[in-house]
Amino acid sequence: MKNYAFAMLMMALSFTVKAQVKTSAQEVATPELAQKRETLKEAIITSYLGVKNSLVKSDSVQAVKFATEFAALLNQFKFKKLSLEEMNTATTTREEIKTLALAIAATKSINKQRSEMDKLSVKMWSIIERFKPEKTTLYKQVCPMTGTTWISDDKVIQNPYYPKNMLTCGEVKASI
After folding, report:
1. Cβ neighbours for 131, distance < 8 A, ≥ 6 positions apart
2. Is the dihedral of CA 19, 37, 133, 166 positive or negative?
3. What pLDDT, in 10s, does the model give residues 40-80?
4. Residue ranges of the domains in the chain?
5. pLDDT for 70-118, tens place per residue?
6. Angle between helix 2-29 and helix 31-56 axes, rounded to 10 deg
7. Axis-axis angle for helices 110-126, 31-56 (nearest 10)
8. CATH match for 33-175 among 1.20.120, 1.10.730, 1.10.10, 1.25.40
9. Cα angle vertex 93, ends 153, 74, to 5°?
10. Helices 60-76 & 110-126, crossing angle to 10 degrees?
11. pTM
């Protein structure tokens, strides 16, 4: 009788675990979750571009707003389909990007914001494929005179670091 009860318990547990795994896998594949993830990616890129465009306009107040939003959105993003090592690297890089975004948000000094933005852009490009929305092309742009980097959704150069003197100084180095 004990063996029978034990066998029934094991069978019930096995069924429960399989049901939970199946439910979990189904949740990942739902169109609603995929759309929610895509919307989050679009918001992350839009807020990054907001910071960049604010620096082009030398608008430190708007840069603070977009940098704050960018950091908050990064908190919501979860990496998918990565090995443990890739997950650790991506998570560490995301935290570094978030710290740089918060440094931009913590100051109204346009020069300090630009300095942090260069570091943020280099880090962001290193994992950009994780954040890029499906139907968006992004460009890595670099000012050849200073080596500063930024990401744009347009091939047209608008240098966020030296907009008064070198607005069109830069070149597209890569695209994704």
Report:
1. 41, 44, 45, 77, 124
2. negative
3. 999 999 999 999 999 999 999 999 999 999 999 999 999 98
4. 33-175
5. 999 999 999 988 899 999 999 999 999 999 999 999 999 999 999 999 9
6. 40
7. 140
8. 1.20.120
9. 60
10. 30
11. 0.82
The model's pLDDT over 119-161, given as tens digits with 9 standing for 90+, comes to: 999 999 999 999 999 999 999 999 999 999 999 999 999 999 9
Answer whether 148's CB lies under 8 Å from 90's CB: no
Residue type, 84: L
